[in-house]
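Can anyone check this?
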Amino acid sequence: MKEYKGKIRLIIKHYPYRYRDYARIAAEASLAARDQGKFWEMHDLMLERSPRLDRESLISYARELGLDMKKFTASIDGKKNDKEIERDLQLALKMDLYNTPTFFINGRKVVGNRPYESFKRILDEELARAGK
């Protein structure tokens, strides 16, 4: 979405769905990668290789990304980012969100995976409304 650079802001919140076996550790892994400057790389690998999100697979992805493995494993095993994940989870519950992914575009709720064209249309509409 390079065409929107400087026009939009993307904020990621984690909602580790409790009935998904590896949702919580996957959230931990993405934040452990973020702490080493590789959030998007880990994010992309996890999406590409889903549903392989068990601890061993996540460690393999971290190694592939060249992360400091001692820091990475200490982070996921020690649940270093657990408070952040829990805050995100509580926010999702407070907002009555039960589906992932859920997006808010200028306050407009968009639920589920959508093709790029769908997001482009919504973004263009909202930017036009905002006069940008």
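Reply from J.R.: I decoded it. The domain at 2-100 is CATH 3.40.30.10 (Glutaredoxin).
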